[in-house]
Amino acid sequence: MVDEWTHEQLDALDALKNGDASPLVALLINGDLLCSDFKDIIQQRLDKGEFIWREDKPKVGRPVSSRLNELFCINVFIKKQKLRKAEPHRRVVEIEQQLAETHALNADDLLRAITRGKQCLEYFEKNHEMPWSREMLNLNKKSRGKTL
């Protein structure tokens, strides 16, 4: 290892910050010595898992929405349950259309989010015995007079 940065190492660091590891790989393949600070930066990123793989040829089709994480899905499921409880005579399709417009989703993505949210809550209830998940799953059952 050396103590001074080279232009190639600075370029490789800039590329790493943008998610491109190819200049770093080229440095390593060529057998260039890395600056100790650069090695420490790479080690920290490896420890944190901050490297992102970006394909040269992206997948054809619409990208998967990154908004459909577990917390978002649980939130959409709970909103649907609360709307159904607040307006019991309203059609479920109308409630889903309202939620889709509110969250700027199409119907398929909304239904996928609702299903995923319900599955997450069921998983928490079954595997981790979290009582709050049971309460969220059974929001509408209380309004019908059923006991938990």
Describe the structure.
This protein has helices spanning 7-17, 22-29, 36-48, 70-86, 92-103, 107-128, 131-137, 139-143. It has eight helices and no strands. It is 64% helix and 0% strand. It starts with 6 loop residues before the first helix and ends in a 5-residue tail after the last helix. Helix 4 (70-86) crosses helix 5 (92-103). It folds into two domains: 7-48; 70-143, no CATH class. It is an all-alpha fold and 148 residues long.
What's the helix and strand layout?
Elements: H1 7-17, H2 22-29, H3 36-48, H4 70-86, H5 92-103, H6 107-128, H7 131-137, H8 139-143
Helix pairs in contact: 1-2, 4-5, 4-6, 5-6, 6-7
Binned strand content: under 5%
User: How many strands?
Assistant: 0
- Low-confidence segments: 143-148
What count of domains describes the coordinates? Answer: 2
Please provide a brief summary of the model.
64% of the residues lie in helices and 0% in strands.
Features:
148 residues; mainly alpha; 8 helices; 64% helix
